[in-house]
Amino acid sequence: MTDVSDLARIAAALERMAPPPPPAADPLTHPAYVWREGGLVATRAFRPLALDLLTGVEAQKAAILRNAHRLADRLPAHDVLLWGARGTGKSSLVKSVVGALQAGGKDIALIEVAPDSLDSLPHLFDLIAPLDRAFALFVDDLGFEEGTAGPRTLRSLLEGGAEARPDNARLHVTANRRHIVAREHGEEERAINARDVMDDRLALADRFGLSVGFHNVDQPTYLAMVEAYAIKLGLPFDGADAIAWATGRGGRSGRVAWHYVIELAGREGKTL
């Protein structure tokens, strides 16, 4: 039979084996953080793309930049839902907007929050609410499985709940669909309260004051993206080669354009 001293030795050994929690980073010092295990961790390197490199999304860029500028100036600003096709620049744009404001002298930081950490956001809100700094809270690629409490949790955090986000922080959420959760109608939606379920989903999307759509990229826009990268980075531009690269990957997007530029820079022996 294991006695108390044996259990204590086992517990001590397990504590030695477990990695220590990451040290808490100063929330007033770094340009970007990751919210991890209930603490802020400074990113190793925050190097967002220059805002002028992002082409084909001028209207989206202007709207999100204008809103973030207000947040940085402590003026009323919206929570933002960026929705649409994969690889169209949603995540890059959030980071680039924050980087551009920082380069312009604004005191704003990015905090990336994993979608499965939403329930810990009230703790983050408590941490940053008293600080004299603006924060763009970035939740990337959000989606919810059927039957989860995620939509209601996020609704409460956005607006109306006792633990709503503070005035110096706004959520920037990316999702592949306008209403975040899947479109397919499962048993829950075929049930007698199907209308209530749909209303609940729409109410979540409606909590975002700014909803910005991103759409599939046509060939001229794709080529304009590649050319803008090439000019900025001093790389040769060959439209036919860029099209062949996209064809080999089954489609065109901002992500495919950037991957092509990485390939091109490698061929040319240049660093990015």
TrEMBL record:
For this protein, the record's SUPFAM superfamilies field holds: P-loop containing nucleoside triphosphate hydrolases (SSF52540)
Can you say what this protein is called?
Answer: ATP-binding protein
Look up the signal peptide feature and give its range: none
Quote one Gene Ontology molecular function term: ATP binding
Alphabetized UniProt keyword annotations: ATP-binding, Nucleotide-binding
The record ties this protein, via InterPro entries, to:
DUF815, P-loop_NTPase
Has the keyword Transcription regulation been applied to this entry? no
Q: Which Pfam families match?
A: DUF815
